TrEMBL record:
Keyword Methyltransferase: yes
PROSITE patterns: N6_MTASE
GO MF entry, a single one: nucleic acid binding
Gene3D superfamilies in the record: Vaccinia Virus protein VP39 (3.40.50.150)
Sorted UniProt keywords: Methyltransferase, Transferase
Protein name, as recorded: Methyltransferase-like protein 5
BP-aspect Gene Ontology terms: rRNA methylation
UniProt-listed InterPro entries: DNA_methylase_N6_adenine_CS (IPR002052), rRNA_MeTrfase/Polyamine_Synth (IPR051720), SAM-dependent_MTases_sf (IPR029063), Small_mtfrase_dom (IPR007848)
Family per similarity comment: Belongs to the methyltransferase superfamily. PrmA family.
Lineage: Eukaryota, Viridiplantae, Streptophyta, Embryophyta, Tracheophyta
Length: 205
């Protein structure tokens, strides 16, 4: 599937109806999500025919994009059941199969690498300090091929240091920098939207 077609389809997905501040529920927009999944497949062959997990899937934009790019099997995991309801409707509307699982990523007790690839837009850790690194630690335990993740560009050096020193990754590279539009979902945002720079990372466990 072409990038523009993928982006167009993702633009039709429903997003959080009642976003929860404490869970940092802002959607991974179609522009960012399509580029993440397209790059993962076209540059590295990490999606098509692979078992893919979408961590903190929310409305499942990344998981559905993986299914549209013909992943063999997709599992979306989120701590919030309302988001999983929206994810389920989105998958039905797109006529793709994804398994949805209600779980706290921190409590995910999968043993060993059960999936090929993890794709994720974790909470940035603004409301729950350190949750971004908890996601990364768990993702690296369960993926055999690669982990794709979005993190604020301001945290680049920290992420690289921790991934190499504490999580023992074979490779940690920033594939590109993207503009991430966080809509004014919350009262404490004064502007209509906040445009932040995020890094698209690829980690090899
Ligand atoms: C930035 S949003 C990701 C949005 C998603 N990619 C989408 O497009 O809808 C972060 C997601 O992580 C979920 N989340 C936050 N803390 C979590 C945890 N401890 N375990 C699992 N999911 C969590 C939130 O509910 C939210 O859906």
């Amino acid at each position: 599937m072409k990038l523009k077609k993928l982006e167009g389809l993702l633009g039709d997905l429903d997003q959080f109806s009642d976003p929860k501040v404490e869970l940092e529920q802002y959607p991974t927009g179609p522009h960012v999500a399509s580029r993440l999944i397209y790059t993962a497949e076209n540059s590295f062959g990490d999606i098509t025919g692979k078992v893919v997990a979408d961590f903190g899937c929310g409305c499942a934009t990344l998981g559905i994009a993986s299914a549209l790019m013909e992943a063999e099997h997709v599992i979306g995991i989120d701590i919030d059941s309302q988001s999983l309801d929206i994810a389920s409707t989105n998958a039905e509307d797109m006529e793709v199969n994804i398994d949805l699982m209600l779980s706290d990523i921190k409590g995910l007790n999968w043993r060993g690498p059960l999936v090929d690839t993890v794709v994720m837009n974790p909470p940035f850790g603004t409301r729950n300090e350190g949750i971004d690194m908890e996601f990364l630690k768990t993702a690296l335990k369960v993926a055999s091929r690669a982990v794709y993740s979005l993190h604020k560009t301001t945290t680049r050096e920290h992420i690289k240091r921790v991934a190499i020193r504490d999580f023992n990754v074979k490779k940690a590279e920033v594939l590109c920098e993207l503009r991430f539009d966080v809509p004014r979902l919350y009262k404490f945002h004064r502007k209509k939207s906040v445009d932040i720079a995020v890094d698209l990372w690829r980690f090899v466990p």
